[in-house]
Amino acid sequence: MISSIQQYIHNPDGTISLKGRPGVRVQAIQEQDLERATAAAHAMEQALSLPHYYEQWQALAHATGMSSRMVRFILADESVSRLSGNPRYQPRNITWPASCGLEFGHRGFLVGMLTSISQCFDLSAEALKTIGVDVPVEGACLVGEAQLFNSRLADKAWEAIQRGIFTHVCPLLYQQPNEPLGAGKLVEVSLVTGELPGCQNARILKAWHW
Known about the structure:
The protein is built from 4 helices and 11 strands, in the order βββααββββαβαβββ. It is α+β, with helices and mostly antiparallel strands.
């Protein structure tokens, strides 16, 4: 399945917009070693035997329903982000739709759908451990769960999680002009390597079959 969100256009002035959404501008991660991230992306493609051409990705992403594979992750906490200006994400001011896609490595193809998001506000480290959050978080956080599609690209995503290639997620937010940085409406979540998340604590916690 193709994402309707992550179809990026790189403009001559250096800005990034979305195909078919002229009023939207993308805030890219700035504190990133681009050369290292590109090398990591190429290494991932080789390690997972991924194709080179768009049509081949389309075929891989064709889904025939849902699988029994689930993923749990920190969606965002209040730590300093890697976005331009280093704002902190604001989990208390993030909203989300009834349906939200899970995307493969910012490649523009969906591999699943979010099934739930839990607000973990004002919880101690011990309380977080009781719900399976045993990694460092700062302040309030959101915990998401997603179910993978039955597709060959979802198979690759599952393999990447199992092999420790996909270790984090990256939330994509639509921010209104009057909203503070780090707030907004969640529109999609990407499975990513450790080089790519805007929120460095947005780690994958668990992957399992039901």
